[in-house]
Each structure stands twice: as structure tokens, then as C-alpha cells.
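Sequence in, structure out. First:
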Amino acid sequence: MVMHTPLGLLALLLLASAPISTRAADCGSTASPKLDWQECSKKNLMLQGSDLEGANLFSTDFSLTDLSGGNFKSANLEKATLVRASLEGSHAEGANFAKVEAYRASFANIAAEGASFAGAELQRANFAGARLSGASFEKAELGRADFDKAVLTGVKFSFANLSRADLSNATIEGPAMFDRAFMFLTRIEGLDLSAAAGLEQAQIELACGDTSTKLPPGLSAPATWPCPAEHE
């Protein structure tokens, strides 16, 4: 016997059997741990001290927003826009900043041990005083980035563009990865690179060091050191 199902009932049955879609981001919610601000616009806001631990901030636009002193531990900020934003003094241990756009952003004094900045656009970003042990900057764009007094032990700069970046007053107490990093006029005066991995003489020839720069065994300071002072 052929059963004829009314069209309305059939539609309900199809809806019931369809997979439940992911809940839409709650862009109107106030900052809180584990919230979902994916692809929301949070531009030019004052969000100092916000607790966004574990939050989903994928592709969120934080351009010109003050996020200083916030908590971003384990948060996902992949592909977020942080142009001229401030995360100064924030906690971001284990956070994901992969592929962020963060031209002239301030990460000064941030605690971001184990964080990922892989593939990020970080030209002229300020990492002064940042604690970055074990962080990854693989394939990141770091032209003219400032790492004054930053802790870079165990950092991965593999394939990164460090052109004119300033690492001269940073601390590297142990290994750090520089394989295939582009180091045109990278400031490494006084930097202890004796335990760094992946460095080649060609990179050193392009970089700017001085007599206090410590190089790995087998590499030597070029005759062009020290570089002249650069005026922007």
C-alpha cells in the first residue's frame, strides 16, 4: 500500500532529520570567557581588562580597540583584525593569533608564552617587554617589529620576514629557530644567539650586529658590522 505524506508533514520531517547548525555568534553580548564573537565588528572600542579566556574571536575586527590588560588565554583570534589595537599588558598564554592582521598593534608587556602568531601580519608591531617563550612566528611578517627587552627563548621565527625588526635588547636564554628567516637589516646587536638553530652565514651577512653579538659555532661576524644608524 502506498502512503501519501502531506507536504507540510514531509517538510517537518526533513527539518527534524537535518543536522543542527552551529549557533550564530552573539555579537551583542558583553565580554566574558568562552563567548562567541566570531566575525563580529568590535572596532574602536574601550575594552580594557576584558576576560575573554577561551573565547572564539575568529576573524573578529578589533581595529583601533583598546584591549589592554585583558585575558586571552587559549582564545582563538585566528584571522582577527588588530590593526592599531592595543593588547598591552594582557595575558594570552596559548592563544591563537595565526594569520591576524596587526599592523602597528601593541603587544607590549604581553604574556603570550606558547602562543601562535604563525602567518600573522605584524609589521611595526610593538612587542617591547613581551614574554614570548615558546611562541611561534613561523611565516609571520615582522618588518620593523620592536622586540625591545622581550623574552624570546624557544621562539620559532622559521620562514619569518624579520626585515628591519629590532631584536637587539631581547633575551634568548636557550634555543630559538631562525631557519629560512629573512633578516635584512634585522637588529641583533648584543643578542645572544649562541644556541639559536637554523641560522646561516648568509642571514648574518644581511643582519646588523656588533662585537657583543654572540653567534652559533661556525658563524662569524661580517666586516660590515656594526651597521650605521637607521633614520626612518
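Second:
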Amino acid sequence: MDWIGDAWQDITTPQPVPSSTAVLLTAAGVLLVLLVPAAWHVARHGLTIVHEAAHAAVAVLVGRRLSGIRVHSDTSGLTVSVGKPRGPGMVATVAAGYTGPALLGVGAAWLLSRGYAVALLWILLVVLVLVLVQIRNWYGLWAVLVTGALLVAVTVWGSATVQSVAAYAMTWFLLLGAPRAVLEMQSERRRGRRRGVPDASDAGLLGRLTHTPGALWVAVLLLVCLAALALGAVWLIGLQV
């Protein structure tokens, strides 16, 4: 039981907040990952896991029955829930996917600005465990287990410095990756239109659910993600001493 007490003390004890320079260097490293196609493809799986977790969480909150989550090798994902095919609950469930990583990033930035890096890592571990029990395909299982193993290694055995760097890197990844994912979705929508493929994106589905243009929802999702990035950056950088 000693390790539980030690873990709880680490979770509830604020750690020193790094300098603005260190925070910005971490952001630069994450931005590099987002700009290098091969690195982005690998890291994108983490964003997909959070994306699908957000769909699942909101589906449960609005009273839908969750059937399972899938994560695919092309970094796409699918969350299946059962309930009314239309209405506010379905709209909220679909909209949660691209906004989920951004909003989680804002919450993570708030925690980090107060020194709770270890608490953030444990929260992310809990999210992964909740996703794990809903995974319904082998590749998704592998992706979540590998991500979880890396997170456990950092959280349980990493030094305070390693934990802090990892927490800030993950937060920047959520904040910076969310708008990139929306722009990526819009690019895929354009390619699909040129090929005459029906729009199966979240924005397209939101458009059909609300009888509005899918492009309007791309703009809404992008604005939410950019606002989250701005607020998160203020907490990560603006409050540094």
C-alpha cells in the first residue's frame, strides 16, 4: 500500500513550474512533430484515441449506449453508439470528436499552470484505461496498449524532469494537433468531392444533422480549436514566473 500513498502524494503535490523558455522549447519540438509527415502519422494515433474517447464520453453523457471504439492503422477511428439518430444529443456526440482534444488540452494547460504535471499524467492514464475496455479491433488494442505502456513508464518510473517535459509535450500536442486535424479533415473533404465520394466526415455528418453546410461546421470546429489553443497558450506561457 505504500506505493499508493506515494502516488497520491505525487498527484496532489504541485511540482515546480518550468520557465517560459523551457515551455516554448517544448512547444517547438511538438510543432516539429506536427510538420514532419512521418512523425505526424505516428503521433496522430494519440490524437485519434482522444478524438474517439471524446465521442464516447459525450455519447454516454447524453444517454446513448456505447457499443465500441475502433482505431485504424491509417489513423482514422470509429466510435459506435446506439440511440436517437438525430437531435441535440447526436449533434453533441459528433461535435465532440474534433473539439475533445482541444478542450482536454485546455484543461491540461490549466493543471500545468498550477504545477500538477503528475496529476495530468494519471488523468491521461485513466482516459486510456476507459478507452481500452471499449476497443473492438486488434490494431486499436495495440495502439492503446503501446500508448499506455509509454505513459506508464513516464508516470511511474520517470524522473520529475521527464514527467514535466512529457506532460507539457502532451498538452502542446493536444492544443496544436487539434486545429491541424480539422484542417486535415477539410483537405480530405475537398479530395472526396473531386472524386465524387460522399462526405463521411464529422463536419459532413453535422451538416446533415442540422441541415446546414458542412463547411460551416469546419469553421466552427476550427474556431473552437484555435480558441482553445490561445487560452491554453496563455496558461502555459503567460502565467510563467
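Remark: The mean pLDDT is 94.
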